[in-house]
Automatic annotation (TrEMBL), chains A, B:
Species lineage: Bacteria, Bacillati, Actinomycetota, Actinomycetes, Pseudonocardiales
Listed cofactors: Zn(2+)
Top-level taxon in the UniProt lineage: Bacteria
PANTHER family, alphabetized: 3-KETO-5-AMINOHEXANOATE CLEAVAGE ENZYME, 3-KETO-5-AMINOHEXANOATE CLEAVAGE ENZYME-RELATED
Gene Ontology molecular functions: 3-keto-5-aminohexanoate cleavage activity; metal ion binding
Keyword terms, alphabetized: Metal-binding, Transferase, Zinc
Signal peptide: none
Species the sequence originates in: Pseudonocardia thermophila
Protein name: Uncharacterized conserved protein, DUF849 family
Amino acid sequence: MQDNPLIIEVRCNESTMRGANPHLPYSAEEIVREAERSHDAGAAMIHWHGRDAVTGAPDNSVELYRETHAGIRAATDLITKPTLGYISQSGVEDRVKHVRALADDPRLRFDAVPVDFGSMNIDTWLPAEKRFEPGDGVYVNTRNDIAAVLGVFRELDTFVTTVCWDVGQIRTALCYREMGLAPTTTLWEFVFTGDSRPSSAGTNVHALNAMIAEIPPGEPWQLMCYGGDVLPLAALAIVLGGHVSIGLGDHDYARFGTPHNGELVERVVQLADTLGRPVASPAQARELLGMPALPPA
Amino acid sequence: MQDNPLIIEVRCNESTMRGANPHLPYSAEEIVREAERSHDAGAAMIHWHGRDAVTGAPDNSVELYRETHAGIRAATDLITKPTLGYISQSGVEDRVKHVRALADDPRLRFDAVPVDFGSMNIDTWLPAEKRFEPGDGVYVNTRNDIAAVLGVFRELDTFVTTVCWDVGQIRTALCYREMGLAPTTTLWEFVFTGDSRPSSAGTNVHALNAMIAEIPPGEPWQLMCYGGDVLPLAALAIVLGGHVSIGLGDHDYARFGTPHNGELVERVVQLADTLGRPVASPAQARELLGMPALPPA
């Protein structure tokens, strides 16, 4: 495992509300603080969503992404991968506008962006009430829209991670490679989901094997667990040569009290240490993924 | 394998156009002919779509379903499972109208109906042209719509097969059980897809294992391959205790010339014979699935 050190990504805030844990970051300053803690704990990459500093509501403004990104860059050398914006946004250009706006600045352009390769129902399951909320939540990514988004990132020469919620989305992504739109240098992101989000593969080794079997051999992959505890899956990924994404944005990890994102990263680092796998620094992770080095400040 | 004989379903015409093979049935008469051939070859169940007799266009009229069903009933004791109608139809009542219309007639009520448990992109991949056609095809089944459809079939006491295109849809179906809407007596249908329809799990044992791992132990499951050759998967299903669906509606099987549906069923019967698994008659299949016997004519 020495030649394949573990890349740990922190998914710090997604669209989760703060609730009982004050460490869920909303503001640029809070995100930068969590970035720094996660970096110091061993993360190589960060994913975040722009949020209103007070209410936590989605805020996908270019200026907020610029401010947050500048703060992360000043504090760490993390690989940066913001969201593409929200489902509520309309149209391809609106989803990519922050990526486009910062693309010409060598220090402030984002290192990577995540692209989802399909559509699925995304309501939350409320087991106590035995109902889905809201009940009509469909995350629609038509194939034409995916093609358009990929076209923009090809034009901007932006590193794209290939986000797949099931095996069919992997197969779809490989079609986009044949079209010359999806990159052959990528990080595959397998989205597993917890019980509150039964939208995707279950959290077991069979589902993971099905995903691994479908990607081209030798390409790097990472897993996450949206709406659930990623740590059991993380152990599988560490042993099977994959990479791990963890964070308060996906799950509250209340079994550890009110952890901040850095503590979650530290759990993964400990796990890797126990299992005998070294952890990649941001610079090593860039090299592993075939990304350019971060330009000096 | 003696106590778990193989249930073979024929999927005779789906929405495939006739093309080079004249045996793809459109009219009620043609569907009944294929039903009879498939029954005689060893099928226990039939799935079909109403089609215009001349053009092959979707025709979901109650009268056409009544005529076709009466013909199948007169010729065979197959378990009958028509489609719920087309994506192009709007609204729950329009999708279930034929099932509702025939529900009070003990001989003409349908034995079973298939319910899909999620949404996904469904365009066709054209490898030579390297594009998706049409490009914006999203098969939307919101969770509220699924609940409404299941409510109707509960009211009509209709046997529901649980159609899942990926592991997440299995998990979703289990939520509907907790809601009291999805039946606990069911046949799980795993939808695999061929290269022309990269919308679903790949056709390998890993994806199959992932599906099997998620359903409650001991419940019956069946697989199909939409847009691809099911026979390699069929061999896995036969050996692993599952059931098999095959037909010209899913794939042209041109490697066998211009087969009719009965010949495809016969291939599965031969495979089962070689692998040492007996084939279920329609009456045995009803018993295996916990369905009532077919009332006498």
